[in-house]
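User: tokens in, sequence out, please.
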């Protein structure tokens, strides 16, 4: 198990009189300041062979800094053999295509059988990384691409990209209604004051921005390409519902029953029986944390989503 970190550096003139945690964050930019503060408080940092326990102590030019840290293992979660659809993997990252039904992280009522448990099994060293390297989530019943960090350096680099909105995420969503043109939705999202499992547009919420454009039009539905600028819980589902374009199969944010008698019985049945939101994380782009190259991954829609689109296309042909 790789649970030892060994880092050494000499304080440069530019960092003279800088407080220790700030100086270390600059000397070792692969690690977050909060991680460095934790190491200082744990006694893992020495300056000129003396253990320093205070973040605010100023460093001096030419001092020798050494970090010998033990990473804390997550011992509260169990590793489980759950098949993963791995699109790409190297020493530093994994990109997976998450199926509908797989929960990303354990929570109330779902203590295990999640992507988190699968990662602990697939990469045992991930037990030393926060959230087993998971840096973003998609809902249980949404499918598609996720990037996972395999070490602390990659984790920190990807978290920084996520915070700076540099990880580009494109989804495909099938919605009710004839969308006329693309646009941007800028509306804050927060927890619903009454229905606690729901999110809603609320002034006290966090900034949320979603861009969308039309990919394909059907008689009473539209297939959209949706790009997230921010990543709030249920963001796409809440924003599209707010615009009166709820996602097909979404049991939480589909505001009303869409009765479409003009569609064939077969088509109506296919829509009614589609038992999860028709939302798929189809494309993911980011700067690789080690090679520094821009990488882009794409994954096709799941079979049931593709089948539903085929049925809607057939219905269009009959109508024309």
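Assistant: Sequence out:
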């Amino acid at each position: 198990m790789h649970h030892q970190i060994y880092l050494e550096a000499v304080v440069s003139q530019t960092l003279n009189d800088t407080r220790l945690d700030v100086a270390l964050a600059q000397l070792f930019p692969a690690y977050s300041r909060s991680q460095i503060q934790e190491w200082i408080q744990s006694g893992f940092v020495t300056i000129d062979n003396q253990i320093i326990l205070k973040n605010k102590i100023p460093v001096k030019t030419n001092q020798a800094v050494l970090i010998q840290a033990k990473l804390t293992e997550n011992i509260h979660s169990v590793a489980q053999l759950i098949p993963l659809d791995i699109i790409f993997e190297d020493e530093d990252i994994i990109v997976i295509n998450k199926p509908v039904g797989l929960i990303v992280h354990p929570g109330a009522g779902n203590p295990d059988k999640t992507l988190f448990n699968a990662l602990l099994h697939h990469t045992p060293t991930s037990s030393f990384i926060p959230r087993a390297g998971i840096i973003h989530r998609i809902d249980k019943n949404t499918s598609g691409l996720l990037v996972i960090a395999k070490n602390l350096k990659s984790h920190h680099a990807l978290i920084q990209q996520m915070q700076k909105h540099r990880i580009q995420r494109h989804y495909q969503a099938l919605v009710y209604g004839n969308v006329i043109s693309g646009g941007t939705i800028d509306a804050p999202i927060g927890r619903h004051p009454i229905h606690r499992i729901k999110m809603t547009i609320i002034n006290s919420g966090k900034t949320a921005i979603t861009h969308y454009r039309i990919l394909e039009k059907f008689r009473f539905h539209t297939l959209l390409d949706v790009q997230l600028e921010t990543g709030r819980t249920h963001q796409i589902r809440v924003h599209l519902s707010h615009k009166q374009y709820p996602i097909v199969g979404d049991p939480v944010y589909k505001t009303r029953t869409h009765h479409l008698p003009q569609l064939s019985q077969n088509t109506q049945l296919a829509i009614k029986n589609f038992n999860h939101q028709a939302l798929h994380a189809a494309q993911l782009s980011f700067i690789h944390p080690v090679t520094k190259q821009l990488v882009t991954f794409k994954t096709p829609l799941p079979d049931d989503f593709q089948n539903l689109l085929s049925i809607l296309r057939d219905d269009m042909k009959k109508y024309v």
